[in-house]
Amino acid sequence: xxxxxxxxxxxxxxxxxxxxxxxxxxxxxxxxxxLQRAKELGISRETIRSTIRSSAGFSIAPSIPIILALMxxxxxxGIPFPWMRLSIIGSFQYELMTANIGAxxxxxxxxxxxxxxxxxxxxxxxxMTLGIPWGMLLAIFTMRKFSTGLDKARKKDATKLTxxxxxxxxxMLSVFVGPPLVQGGLPLYTLLVSAxxxxxxxxxxxxxKIGWLSDxxxxxxxxxxxxFSVLFSL
Amino acid sequence: xxxxxxxxxxxxxxMLVLMISAPLxxxxxxxxxxxxxxxxxxFLQAAMIYLPIAVAEYFTFVPILGPGGSYLAFVTGxxxxxxxxxxxxxxxxxxxxxxxxxxxxxxxxxxxxSSMVTILVVLIGMLLILPLQPLLSSPVxxxxxxxxxxxxxxALGAHFFSQHRKLAVVPLLSTMILAATxxxxxxxxxxxxxxxxxxxLGLISVASxxxxxxxxxxxKEDIE
Lengths: 234, 224
What we know:
The complex is a heterodimer of chains A (234) and B (224).
Chain A: H1 3-7, H2 10-40, H3 45-77, H4 80-87, H5 92-104, H6 118-131, H7 134-156, H8 158-183, H9 185-207, H10 217-233
Helix pairs in contact in A: 2-4, 3-4, 3-10, 5-6, 7-8, 8-9, 9-10
Chain B: H1 4-30, H2 36-76, H3 79-94, H4 101-127, H5 129-136, H6 142-146, H7 148-163, H8 165-185, H9 194-215
């Protein structure tokens, strides 16, 4: 059988759809649990609404490159399996790299080459599945302890914990802000345009009485940067 | 189910079983199992790369998101480009801090909403993949997607770095020196090692922040 016919078979769609559906239901359960906890903690409805609006608006644009990743993978791994993998745990680089590792372990130099057989495809699927579940395993076995430890640290010295968490986050921000600054060119201009748009829109949202604007300041700034990069390249 | 950890352990165990049953059902149905040798070799290669990254990411991201958001984020993935920024922005707007109970609840709601949006967007993309392909892969739009991270982190950096300038100095300068070395001396693609660098820069950033706090250059009011 042609490996691509196999990869796009109905059964593969069904199996993958079940996994994605499970994850979607999990999201609903966690959302309801979170809303319930928010109520108990006395967090206002307006704050919750603003959280939902801002998170939803913010997540649309960065999700589109995932579709592009799917387009890049479907020629060699079919549509349903990469769709499932990209909808859950994996990110594009991880998935493509593990799929390649799976293929090369079978002696196939490149995914999608004429040496592809159903067995190579199956090895790629297995390696993609079992190669990356580490975050989940760690969470299952250590999260309760780790999170209790963090709570204790907060009770001991809340300022210090906030400092450590902010510093961790700043480390991550730097990894993405630093390179365009030394690399220059379009990534740098995009970074600067989006930063400038943020400062402008944020000031506007604070001054004006447009309540919803502040929920979308990040989204609009990000989109502004993206639109700029298209116009700049025309 | 009130206890987030009991929900977390149950839902993630279920996820692992389902996730593994996907290739299992496919292999059984078509009767194609990979030979043991190549599978083990591929598995070990993948594990050698991702296990250390996952451990480091785990200790970086759990303190930021709190337990509820973390459990779900480790199932839905895309942490650096979606879940963490969405949750941090939501906590910032709500005026709550990472590491507090309120912060964890806001992060949990944010991760759930963000994951649902991504699943729906990718589902629409999958269903419409043929008509969408010429549009999304057109050379005109390519720069927008190639530069989505600078567009995203430009806004985030402008906001958070200007809020706590003193905390930004060391990690930002360290990354710039590192990036310059990687790009101009080793001529490597920086993006390929970005994931590995997040925990490394996290450590540098925490160590410097604690030092500045101890010598009194960063004070309590600087982070509140």
